[in-house]
Amino acid sequence: MATDLRLLRFLRAPRFFVLACTVLLAACAVTPEQAAKPAKRALWPQPPDRPRFVYETVLRSAADIRVPQKGTEKLMTELTGLQSTADTPVFEKPAAVAARNGNIFVADTRTRSIVVFDVPRRKVFRFGLRQPGTLQQPAGLALDAEMNVYVADSKRRQVIVYDQLGLFQRAIGGPADLERPTGVAVSPDGERIYAIDRSDNESDRHCVVVYDKEGTKLKVIGTRGRGDGQFNVPLQGAVAPDGTLYVLDSGNFRVQAFDRDGKFLRAFGSPGVNPGNLARPRGIAVDDDGNIYVSDASFNNFQIFSPDGQLLLTVGEASRDSRPGQYGLLSGISVDETGRVYVVDQLFNKVEVIRRLSEAEGNKILQAAK
């Protein structure tokens, strides 16, 4: 019965976004592949079921968050035949994403930087290129309630902390603590920082290292293995509103949950090819209702689970074409406070935005489809 109530709450929960961000995202440019191959609207699930999610936009360049212009910039493009610099992709190999308050942060491993889509200000910028906050291999991202940005850097073997504008704050950990951190999770109050250390394939130090707000090491969760609380190539983590830590234990094809003190609570997931199974999980996120989102680079979709591990919905599919909801190599995933889902596709070099529909919106779409 408890699971049924959570499922009902998830399916009916309405979400709203600030008006400015909605207008800007709706004005995003249509990609060439979308124009060349019109398709039915990307909805999940499709009618006759009531849709709960809809494709909203794709993020690749500054043009994707600007208001379309009819003036000088457009005229110069037509006269010269040159592409506007605003249309140039701003990342080369996106890996992780974190989003809140209309700001979308994308870790780009090839340019060794964090790309920021600041939707309210219609700006795109990057950081992580200057000392002492120079990045070497950004692999994981997290945000706290104050919009501080936490970056897991696999080569620096540290978690680097910046403010919302990209100004360096501090570095946490180091080679003595971390071998190969690929993910980071932070409690909303910033009091607990969890570095997900996937280490090397030959190492037994597959674990989660816990730090306090000042960067003092508190404890280590787990060792390498298959038992409860053990890991085999843990990649990413996320903290739920109630403080539960979820760790993507990719080599064991599961998600493990721990309390604030690192005590094992439960696990779900198993290898396979059916809905609810995991094949090549790459990213994990938690929404405000405590539901868990897992992206998979083999299925090239993301699956949504209830807090106790029950499958709620599957979104997306594998494809050779970069069309809405179709993916080639999924990586990181994030969910913001509006319920929007941001998912990284490394093959097609994009971040897609999938919006949660209110019950009224879903019913309207369903009626129009009849």
How would you describe this structure to a colleague?
With about 375 residues, the chain is mainly beta. Helices cover about 10% and strands about 40% of the residues. It contains five helices and 27 strands. The protein has helices spanning about 1-10, 20-25, 30-35, 70-80, 360-370, and strands at about 45, 55-60, 95-100, 105-110, 115-120, 125, 140-145, 150-155, 160, 170, 180-185, 190-195, 205-210, 215-220, 235-240, 245-250, 255-260, 265-270, 280-285, 290-295, 300-305, 310-315, 315-320, 325, 330-335, 340-345, 350-355. A five-stranded antiparallel β-sheet has the order 1-2-27-26-25, with no helix packed on it. A four-stranded antiparallel β-sheet has the order 3-4-5-6, with no helix packed on it. β4 and β5 form a beta hairpin. The radius of gyration is 20 Å and the shape is globular. The model is unreliable at about 10-30 and about 30-40 (pLDDT under 50).
Layout of SSEs?
Blueprint: H1 2-12, H2 19-26, H3 32-36, E1 43-44, E2 53-59, H4 72-80, E3 94-100, E4 103-108, E5 113-118, E6 123-127, E7 138-143, E8 149-153, E9 158-162, E10 168-172, E11 181-186, E12 192-197, E13 207-212, E14 217-221, E15 234-239, E16 245-249, E17 254-258, E18 264-268, E19 281-286, E20 292-296, E21 301-305, E22 311-315, E23 317-318, E24 326-327, E25 330-335, E26 341-345, E27 350-356, H5 359-369
Parallel strand pairs: 23-24
Antiparallel strand pairs: 1-2, 2-27, 3-4, 4-5, 5-6, 7-8, 8-9, 9-10, 11-12, 12-13, 13-14, 15-16, 16-17, 17-18, 19-20, 20-21, 21-22, 25-26, 26-27
